[in-house]
Amino acid sequence: MKSPKKGGAKSRKLKRVERYLAGIPVLVQKIDSKRTFECTLLNISLNDFTVRFEKNKFDFKKNENFYIMIDPELFNITHISSLKINAICKTVEENKFKITAKFTEINENLLSDIEIIVNCFKNLNEYEI
Prior knowledge:
This protein is mainly β and about 130 residues long. It contains 1 helix and 6 strands. It starts with 19 loop residues before the first strand and ends with a helix. The chain is globular.
């Protein structure tokens, strides 16, 4: 039996960042719109995340910029009243109403807040019942 090829045709060395299951409500907003969409944050890492929309609210395209808004109080982040992070859509799964996006324009303070959120989900994912 053949072993699968490693890396494929376009093999690049990227730092592997683990994603953690989430399952909390978040808001997303297109850059050029005031309208927000409520969706579910399915998973998150330091670099990216996946959200799922309701069927009738799905209209995002690949490479489209938007904001993800997360309630900082859920993670005991008290130095700000709202957490609004720039992102760019990387994958659209219309049949599953999901998009995967990459964080953009991240400064040191935002990265620190994202680390807090990711670590919360990391701890929850490692907790055994």
